Amino acid sequence: MEKSKVYDYMLSVLDKAENGPILEEKDWDRQYINQSIKDLIKKYDIQWDKETMVPSDDALADRLFEAGMELAREVGVYCLDTKRQMKWNQAELDYILSTAPDEETIGLGDDSVTIRHRLPDTDADITTIGGPYGTPVPEELFVPIMTSYAQERDLDYIDNATLSTTHGRPIKAGSPWEAVGCWQEAQLSFEVLERVGRPGMPIGCAEDSPSEIGELATCTYNGFRQTDWHHASFISELKVAYAELTKAMHYQHTGSFAHNFYNTIYGGYVGGADGLAVAIVAGVLLMKAALNGNTFNPGPSHAHLSCSTFPAMIPALSLGFQAISRNTKLLTSSFPRPIGGPCTKELLYESAAVGIATVPSGISILEGIQSAAGRIEGHVTGLEARFLAQVGRATVGMTRAEADPLVRKLTPLYAEQQKTGIALKGKHFTEAYDLETIQPTAEWQGIYEEVCQEMEDMLGLKL
Amino acid sequence: MKKENYEYLASVLEKADTGPVIEEKEWDYQYIGAKTKDLIKKYDISWDKDTYVPADDDLADRLYQAGWELALESGVYCRNTKKQMLWTEDELKGIIDSGPSELVVGTGDDEVVIRQRRPEQPSRVTILGGAYGTLIEEDLFGAMVEAYAKEPLIDIVEPPSIPTAFGRTIRIQSPWEVMAARRESDLALAAVKRAGRPGICIGAAATSGSEIIELAATSYNAYRQTDWHHTSFVSENKVTYADLTRAAHFYLTGSVAHTFCDPIYGGYLGGKEGIAIGCVAGPILLRATLLGDTVNAGPSHAHLSCDTHADLLAAQALSFQAIARNTHLLKGIHIRPAHGPGTKEILYEVAAMAIMGVTSGVDYLKSVQSACGVNMGHTSPVEARLCARVAHASEALSREEGNALVTQLVNKYQDLIPTADTGIHFRDSYNLETLEPAQAWQKIYEEVVSELRELGLSI
What we know:
- By secondary structure, chain A is of the alpha/beta class.
- Helices cover 45% and strands 13% of the residues of chain A.
- In chain A, 60% of the residues are buried.
- The two termini of chain B are 36 Å apart.
- The mean pLDDT of chain B is 97.
- The interface between A and B is large, with 42 and 42 residues.
């Protein structure tokens, strides 16, 4: 492999993790994140009308970008293994951002998909991804559950569930079981793609890799392909582990397509919605800087509810995407993580709210759904992902101003119920789908159709 | 290479998680030390101390029984879980029988077949040549690999290790291992291409680290499934999660897996008789635990590190004979002399080991971890070239004939081992422009070749 300028850059990233100033994690959380964000909110006047769900204020979006860029430049990333602060100067950040293309093609042959950069209010198409996103599922249900997603033609590609066991044994993190578990995940995924006749479709992977072992063990010969969607991530807030840098370098070396994500926490060290917005921008910039992926998702998560659909978080998410979209070519994704589970209307309302708020905000990918916040084994189905994709596509071409009232109508439909948390977990896949036909039960299909009708009647969205 | 017995692989990992809990000290003293002592007595494992290549088939078979019993009754110790991994007799027989008796490695015109041999069988042995993980400066790594790959008698190349990647320290369990993996594979693949042998099998990854380096190196754009991938035991018969992870990775990716262990002479196994048993039990358990396609027990002297010490020769010879006569496992000899390049003694040590191994039925020779591999850059292809020539010249010899030659060679180096000259660095032993041996080293080589002819070897 010829040593390119980007490769030299990535070497410098690893150097930062070894040579940066030593900091205590407590200082990082309280001073470098919390205090800096408070100062930036004030300096850049990051605020909006609390009733607004989808702001349309370009100047605010651009100030937010400046705030996020300043956080990225002045604070950087904390390496958990070395306790070092990794810092970038503006020229370095500008360089790595300049290397990002405005479109990327992923997948193979007829099943390949092109992901494009989108601006707010544009009518360019989005890419849609569906899957349980690491929600645990019983080994014997992996294929039917993943088939329920892969068969949906509204979805451009899939992201895997996590196996609860491998060959009947627990998948112990950092052990050889991780390699075996991820390998089984890969083989079962290929079986799913063959079954639905989409062999070249990208797969979000590996979802059984708590350490670096699973990813390294499967991003190789006979395992997941370079054209799959490989994950490396930050830990909140703006922290990175050696394991994630290891994964990132492996994708670089193997020429694999990399997706980076980060869950900034609403109600955590970043503070409330305004702080969340700043962290979303900084997070995306720093994921590009530290992990050099191809696509980026900034979460976020509610500190107690775990979801990303909490109403106060939605404008922060919308603004964060607008800021990135207007000022970079980075390919971002929106990821609804609802409290509601399958067979609940709330799951569909929550997902629709985030989808409608973020598609006009300039995202490139709408992905989901980690139903029931991904916490309940098997509480996931392909139907909610189909619904999200349909809502997303119906929203394409809508302006932010048009989307705002729709989201305002949706959030009251679930806001109070959402606080009950686990009560909204819904039903297990085996109760929501017919395992023979891999189609929704009459109950779940009925709820879906009812909500589709509501989308048309209440919001004017024809799915 | 298709490898699809996932249930067996899972059952091995399960043994590491669910076997009886044992303290490591108890493992060393009871399950290895005391057990080996009992087996020496039970199977009457003894031989004339002046014989280096015994030719007693009955003794070799008793040794196999002793090694089998150690494998069956003590098994393997997993250091991460402190569990004893045990196999039933049927499991052990099944996995040994499932091992290949011939193995294709490398690709295209550079492909070679490693074939099972028996003692005194006049068939071709496979020659591996390289530095076996001996460190070399990063900027000389490519030249050294190329120099080995240029040797026509070398079938498989085994690279040295790099101490840095792009000038940076390779920190274990960090992303730098991934960088080292790629740096090593890039340099090695480029070197064999320059040597005109792009498909030659490469021993990988030679740079030591955790499991990360192997996982990262056996992947797209790096080492190939047809290369020779390493995983090993810790002495005695202990395994770590890292090695089990490597083994699982090689199995799942259908890569060629080479497994090795280093029984320690003067350690818990005791003296030469215990080493002989350890050298039989080790390969059986390497196959069972790490699913090696090739196996190697390369003993180390507790203080001198080498495996060419006179006391170790017969123990190794007997263990090769035991395995060759009772299994079709592909086993090899690893040559780790005390002396280094630029000395005559390294060539005597290499020749003694090659003759002993080939007449005892080894299938391949790993040559040469010169000066015990502990001096940066103190390896050169000349000693591997000599090994190849001696090995092929020994293919038609009987063990008795081999013993006579080895006896003469041992006399030339044995007393010098404790104060062995570790020789000279690659940059001094080779011309770095032409990648040919320096004149002085070439002359020593030629003198030793003449001496070997005088001893009666048709080289």
